Amino acid sequence: MNGKPRKVVLAYSGGLDTSIIIKWLQVNYKSEVVTFTADLGQNEELEPAKNKAIMLGVNPENIFIEDLREEFVKDFVFPMFRANAQYEGQYLLGTAIARPLIAKKLVEIANLVGADAIAHGATGKGNDQVRFELSCYALKPDINIISPWREWDLTSRTRLLEFAEANQIPIAKDKKGEAPFSVDANLLHTSSEGKILEDPGEVAPDYVFQRTVSPEAAPDESEIITLDFKLGDITAINGIQMAQHDLLEELNRLGSKHGIGRLDLVEGRFIGMKSRGIYETPGGTILLTAHRAIESITLDQGASHLKDELMPKYSELIYNGLWYSPEREMIQALIDNSQKYVEGTVTVKLYKGNVSTISRNSKSSLYSEQYVTFEEDDGIYDQRDATGFIKLKAHRLKMLARRKLRSN
Question: Is 0.90 surpassed by the pTM of this model?
Fold first, then answer.
């Protein structure tokens, strides 16, 4: 960075690390600090974050707190679920999909207040530093970005605590010792990693799971629900229409109750190391199952298979912080085009950690009982047509087989 920034917009959670960053920016850069705290449905009271920022010397006019739940679900989560996105075949990208929205708001606030830098609390070992910074640069290419974890000498929990105490920064009692694990939460998921979870050979203790009951403790009676879809997005649960973030909240409630959406994953980080995470995505797991079910009767085979081929690439782009890249937007346009007839109702059963599709209906269904029936089909399909089809498909295989026989 050329020169010290006058004014810095910090992605502020109200936790220990970003509270330390406020003071560190004030001390190290002599900068005016502006804080932004996003309500992404993490179910935390945000007023304490505001009060803490004021206590740390932030001007109340420089404290921004915004409810982003509806925008998060409408413009980020649901578009991603139209693609059935799963990183490395399992992870529903709950942390990754929140970062481009936070970055967007950081840039908007920087423009609003005339800030010349943005700061975040992501560590130099993780994916979030990449996600925040690539997103910010995509939206404001000349912005300066400060990443304290890559600059300061507070390289251990002990040093962080000493800095906090020296600068009268409140430390929660459970932060005095080694924190058992770190947690990131939003309306889509909760992720836990680090400390006691760092050994992938050790079983994660029960208290790590915060959003879901264990499948063993879930109700002994199954629950059947319906999900309505239009243009690939869920519009109602059990026939009741709601705001989009309320739909996801209700799915979370149902999934949590039945122990659905737990994942213990060792993943490959973008920066090149393996990490273990415990993820809980109850509502998203139900949504994914139901969306694939409605697509199974409304998407053409060619479109469906192409989507499945593109999904790993699309998921990797989100995981790697490239939400605002042209390639992600190009794939998104293709995905959204595929969803024009993805509409109807899916019925699923929730039971002890599992979500199972039990029926699906759509006025745009491509499924035809007349074609697939084992009974009389009234001449809809002439089975003799398959003879020529098979012979054509077998032609090259026969040629290859004859050559192989000659060479032997």
Answer: yes
